[in-house]
Write a structure and sequence with these properties.
This protein is α/β, with parallel strands linked by helices and 232 residues long. The chain has one domain: Class I glutamine amidotransferase (GATase) domain (Rossmann fold, 3-Layer(aba) Sandwich). It is built from seven helices and eleven strands. The chain has a seven-stranded mixed beta sheet with strand order 5-4-1-6-7-11-10, with helices on both faces. Strands 2-3 form a two-stranded antiparallel ribbon. The protein is globular and about 45 Å long. It starts with a strand and ends with a helix.
């Protein structure tokens, strides 16, 4: 079986253009559903973040009116998985060589720190050049923006991908005063952004790149990654 690295943001606030701070953290379903699928398929899963900082839970992902009636199970699984793993690995000390896949869950944190994290950029460059699986869901694709090569070019330009849409950001109530909107930024950077219906499962595979649009896309994305790893 394979070894998978889930890379989390370390951010707990998202600074807005009006100067306010929006509390953020990992989104339970986006961490728990892939972890559950990966472990169920027999893979070993590690967790890493900038500086090894454990990001808090995004409280919205524990609210059944927002995250659905199954959110309590996702919260419990995420907390158990993180607790069992222990201290997170530090991104600066991680090598892509030992992993078969790098997976990036969301919450708003990736638009705060991971999108410009040099250590993550190095990791993604190495993984993509080796043809290893790269996965990202919801706001996780913001982290892909860190993968800029020696020529200053974004290695995922021209690739098909899904991500949390501008429409979903507006529906969630966080578009106003956002420093930038993810789907728009990805298109501006050269991504071939695709989208499905708001808050419905939608995933895209482009070669070794697997992406999902929103929390509901977390499990389907993980299943697609499992299938790819099983196929070798």
């Amino acid at each position: 079986m394979g070894r998978i690295l889930i890379v989390m943001s370390a951010a707990d606030v998202w600074e807005r253009t009006d100067g306010s701070e929006y509390p953020t953290g990992y989104w339970a379903e986006e961490l728990a559903a892939p972890h559950e699928r990966f472990v169920g398929a027999g893979h070993t899963v590690d967790f890493a973040s900038p500086g090894g900082v454990l990001q808090p839970l995004d409280r919205h992902s524990a609210d059944p009116e927002i995250a659905g009636e199954d959110c309590a199970r996702h919260v419990a699984h995420a907390r158990r998985a993180l607790g069992d793993f222990g201290p997170l690995l530090k991104l600066a000390e991680v090598s892509a060589d030992v992993y078969d896949a790098i997976v990036l869950p969301g919450g708003h944190g990736p638009v705060v720190d991971l999108f410009q994290d040099g250590d993550l950029g190095r990791l993604l460059l190495d993984a993509d050049r080796a043809g290893k699986v790269v996965g990202a869901v919801c706001h996780g694709p913001a982290a892909l923006l860190s993968a800029v090569d020696e020529r200053g070019e974004w290695i995922f330009a021209g690739r098909r991908m899904a991500a949390f849409t501008d429409e979903e950001e507006q529906m969630f109530g966080t578009a106003e005063n956002a420093p930038w909107l993810l789907a728009s930024r990805l298109r501006e950077a050269g991504a071939r952004h695709e989208q499905g219906d708001p808050y419905q499962p939608f995933t895209v595979q482009d070669g070794n790149l697997f992406t999902g649009q929103n929390p509901a896309s977390s499990a389907p994305m993980a299943d697609a990654i499992n299938d790819a790893l099983a196929a070798g």
